[in-house]
Design goal:
five-stranded parallel sheet; Rossmann fold; alpha/beta; Immunoglobulin-like; 26 strands; binds 1-deoxynojirimycin
Length: 745
């Protein structure tokens, strides 16, 4: 083709696409956004703030609306969720390209722990304390999802959660703001990669802003009543960490905080997020949460709800249609300024530009790339490693584990042994055209692992729920024939997750009764507990020979469990959340205040129950290994620190057992006396180190003023002079070394 024809074609293209024409001379994203916004009518602007779910799968209450395609073609929709796969996203994008300005749609999806390759649930991953591994897990999810047409994941969920009755605890990183912040940043980096616009990056979304994890009674969607200090000190830090890591979007939350729904909360969204933190991305509502302000009783009708949300800084309306139906009226009535709407539109368009969608709306709709990434043989390997790293060894009496690969007969019993999809946990993605055959069941994992000389016997024993014990006899019969019993029990995968709050968090049904009859055979029993939250399982904890808390491990569950059972992977995970002995102890967390009557004060009436211990069953930071670690030689290079100074802390950790292994060394601090009471300990740093048998390593930490700071009575972030206790632990209770130092002016 000669140059003249080329130029002519380009001119025709530019003429056909007004946006390309308008921006052909523009350079920066800002300028390009300006050039588009100059062309937009108010209706088209409001359209950008409107997000719909596709009909195919829904992750919230569906509004029947057969008019969506027309609205997309009219430029009245800015984003779609729940449409995935290159065919479907291409189809919708083609509809958007029929609109006057051809502004591309954003496709969002809950890619919470993997897309096709399912990784362990986020709470499980968080027990690895392995930031690089979690970044990589999110990276693979982004690679696959972006190849499937997705631009935006509604993850990570960074809500601190201290109430295991709340089913969504499975989606987060546990109870601690420090660990939670590190993990929030790691996941954002993983999803977003080097930069938005790279073909395998997608926008992340820090959710749910804010304090959703503190719903009263652990009931999903419930109210939150919280002091500002708790909000600032415990619940907001992971969000701030996500913002600092460059997260592209935030999602607000269903709950109200002290009576003000988060969706209409100006203090959170305008003052803190967009004000103090200088967040430049956009905020999406949760599903229908704009309209739900009417049920909350903080808005009389959808008109008021739209007013409240847009004023408070919620830029995009997911599925409630309040923006679409009422923003234009609010502008006409002089209640909402066009500048407010422009600000929201600008934030959204900027992201569309950064993703490269204006240059090529079909950039992420490449069917060939989709096939390649969904079948990338490296991804299951990475998922398996992540799963290995997420399994917590809670008990290992007589060093029963690891099992020998030459064990003659193994009885593998329980309702979850042959389950396939259960292993994915809640918030898996149903990927178009993919069946579940790529998931490795626990049975298949064991079959893959053991040699030809090992006989594997199977009995289901019972269901997850219900009272039927008719399968017990068969289970006992095969247990008697075996050298060791492995029992796989727990929750159903959909017993934890959104709207899956439980008042009773015992292991359901007769599963613990099954364990009783199996133990009565005298055989050693390894129990695998599959769950999306900490469960209460005192009988199992006290009587099983060994326990692995496997959570939900994803598509490589079976292989990973077998890796740990047979010692191909030495477990290294530690709990990121406290396990109660009883639901009556909830909320329970390690970082509590001492009170004036701590139980440690002896026999005086104290802050205990008369019918229950106040101590957890398994504490935050706890997890065993096949090897043992010795901590020694704690050194502080000084015992006084100034406001600008630092203390170098070092200690030696030695592997004193027979296996190579990894240890998570935890550093806790306590401010011994301050202007307000401070927690008995706060995690302030940690190191995960690998040691061969017999090897020692020096671990170093640095303490500076930031680690000593807290919100004082006036909610100023300060470090007060005085003494601090430094504790180095293998868990929050198992403190191995300690020392005291002083902050001086
Ligand atoms: C409601 C959930 O709370 C939120 O986390 C999710 O991203 C949306 N639905 C979309 O599925």
């Amino acid at each position: 083709m000669n140059a003249k024809i080329n130029t002519a074609l380009l001119l025709i293209l530019l003429f056909l696409n007004p946006i390309l024409f308008a921006q052909s001379q523009q350079k920066t994203v800002d300028q390009r956004v300006d050039s588009v916004m100059r062309l937009m009518t108010p209706e088209e602007k409001i359209g950008q703030l409107n997000q719909y779910s596709d009909d195919w799968t829904a992750t919230g209450p569906v509004t029947v609306d057969n008019d969506k395609t027309r609205q997309v073609r009219n430029g009245q929709v800015g984003s779609m969720l729940n449409c995935k796969g290159t065919d479907r996203t291409r189809w919708w994008q083609e509809a958007a390209m029929k609109s006057r300005l051809k502004i591309p749609l954003l496709f969002g999806q809950d890619v919470v722990h993997g897309y096709k390759t399912t990784f362990p649930i986020p709470l499980a991953e968080s027990c690895s304390w392995d930031l690089d591994a979690m970044t990589l897990s999110a990276r693979i999810a982004a690679t696959e999802a972006s190849a499937g047409g997705i631009h935006w994941t509604f993850a990570p969920m960074v809500d601190i959660a201290r109430d295991p009755r709340w089913g969504r605890m499975m989606e987060g990183a546990g109870e601690d703001p420090y660990l939670g912040s590190m993990i929030a940043a790691a996941r954002v980096k993983g999803f977003q990669g080097n930069k938005l616009g790279d073909i395998n990056s997608m926008m992340a979304c820090a959710k749910h802003f804010a304090a959703y994890g503190a719903v009263i009674g652990g009931r999903d969607y419930n109210s939150v009543d919280m002091s500002e200090r708790l909000l600032l000190e415990v619940y907001l830090p992971p969000f701030k960490a996500a913002a600092e890591a460059g997260v592209a979007t935030f999602m607000n939350s269903f709950n109200d905080i002290n009576g003000v729904p988060a969706t209409g909360n100006s203090y959170l969204q305008r003052d803190i997020l967009k004000g103090q933190w200088g967040f430049k991305g956009f905020v999406v509502s949760d599903w229908g949460s704009v309209g739900e302000m009417v049920s909350h009783g903080s808005a009389k009708n959808d008109y008021e709800a739209a007013f409240s949300a847009i004023t408070a800084g919620c830029d995009m309306d997911m599925e409630s249609r309040c923006y679409k139906n009422y923003l234009a009226q609010l502008v006409a009535d002089g209640k909402v300024s066009m500048a407010l709407i422009d600000d929201a539109v600008r934030r959204i368009l900027e992201k569309k530009f950064e993703l490269g969608l204006f240059d090529d709306p079909f950039k992420y709709c490449d069917a060939e790339r989709e096939q390649k990434e969904l079948n990338n043989p490296e991804h299951p390997k990475i998922a398996r490693e992540m799963a290995d790293r997420s399994i917590v060894l809670l008990k290992n009496q007589n060093n029963l584990l690891p099992l020998s690969k030459n064990t003659k007969t193994i009885a593998f019993i329980g309702p979850l042994v042959k389950a396939v999809k259960q292993n994915k946990g809640f918030w898996d993605v149903e990927v178009p055209g993919v069946d579940s055959s790529y998931i490795v069941s626990q049975w298949a994992g064991l079959v893959n692992k053991v040699g030809a000389t090992t006989k594997l016997l199977y009995a289901k024993g019972c269901e997850i729920e219900g009272s039927d014990k008719s399968g017990f006899d068969e289970a006992v019969r095969i247990a008697k024939q075996s050298d060791v019993v492995i029992l796989s029990i727990g929750e159903r995968r959909d017993m934890s997750g959104e709207a899956r709050s439980r008042s009773n968090i015992d292991i359901p049904g007769v599963q613990e009764d099954l364990l009783k009859v199996l133990l009565a055979t005298g055989k050693p029993v390894v129990v695998l507990i599959n769950a999306g939250r900490p469960l209460v399982f005192n009988y199992t904890a006290d009587n099983a020979t060994a326990i692995l808390y496997t959570w939900w491990l994803g598509s490589e569950a079976g292989n990973a469990i077998a890796d740990v059972l047979f010692g191909d992977f030495n477990p290294s995970a530690k709990l990121s959340v406290t396990f109660p002995q009883s639901v009556g102890q909830i909320p329970i967390y390690y970082s509590h205040l001492n009170t004036g009557r701590p139980v440690t004060n002896g026999d005086v009436p104290n802050t205990s129950y008369i019918d229950l211990s106040i101590y957890p069953k398994f504490e935050f930071g706890f997890g065993l290994s096949f090897t043992t670690f010795k901590y020694s030689d704690l050194k502080l290079n000084k015992n006084k620190i100034s406001n600008t100074g630092e203390i170098e802390v070092s200690l030696t950790v030695s592997n004193t057992g027979k296996y190579a292994g990894e240890e998570i060394v935890q550093l806790y601090l306590r401010d011994l006396a301050g202007s307000i009471s401070r927690p008995v300990k706060d995690l302030k740093d940690f190191a995960k180190i690998a040691l061969n048998a017999g090897e020692s390593k020096i671990v170093r930490f640095t303490i500076d003023k930031e680690k000593l700071s807290f919100y004082n009575q006036k909610l100023q972030w300060v470090a007060e002079p005085g003494e601090f206790e430094l504790m180095i632990g293998a868990s929050s209770s198992d403190i191995r070394l300690n020392s005291v130092f002083e902050l001086v002016n």
